[in-house]
Amino acid sequence: METMVSTLTVLFEDPFWIGIYEREGYGRYEVCKITFGAEPKDYEVYAFFLRNWNQLKFSPALEAEAKADKKINPKRLQRHVNRQIVGLGIGTKAQQALKVQQEQGKLERKARSRAQREAEKERQFEIRQEKRKEKHRGH
After folding, report:
1. What is the pLDDT of residue 93?
2. What strand order describes the sheet that includes 28-37?
3. How far is Cα 139 from Cα 122, in angstroms, rounded to an integer?
4. pLDDT at residue 67, as a whole number
5. Percentages (nearest 5) of helix, strand, coil residues in the chain
6. How far apart are CA 31 and CA 134, in angstroms?
7. Where are the domains of the chain?
8. Smallest Cα–Cα separation from 94: which of 2, 5, 1, 9?
9. DSSP per position, 8-66
10. pTM score of the predicted model
11. What does the pLDDT read at residue 108?
């Protein structure tokens, strides 16, 4: 049976507090970046997820290797949790996934601005053509 693993890391990235929400399961790895603004309290983060769960924009799914379910020594698990809390930051997988999402947004913006630029050029050309026709109509 496949399990889903989700982690939320809240950290300060000048000038805002952000959350990196990672979910992994079924051979996929996805990440979402959330900007909080001021330092959020636990109940505020929980309320945010309850309200905005459907609007979260996850990165495109990356391939994730399946992890074997094995028992971990409780002391080792505690050390691992403490290392994560101390602030190793976001994992490289999360950074890569966010970068892919950022690149997609960049390409979409480029295409949209190119289309606007072309439409504006076409509009200006039509205006010039109309003015030329006005001049040649006679007095």
Report:
1. 78
2. 5-13, 16-25, 28-37, 62-63
3. 28
4. 62
5. 50, 20, 25
6. 58
7. 5-134
8. 9
9. EEEEEETTEEEEEEEEEETTEEEEEEEEEESPPPHHHHHHHHHHHGGG--PPPPEE-PP
10. 0.50
11. 94
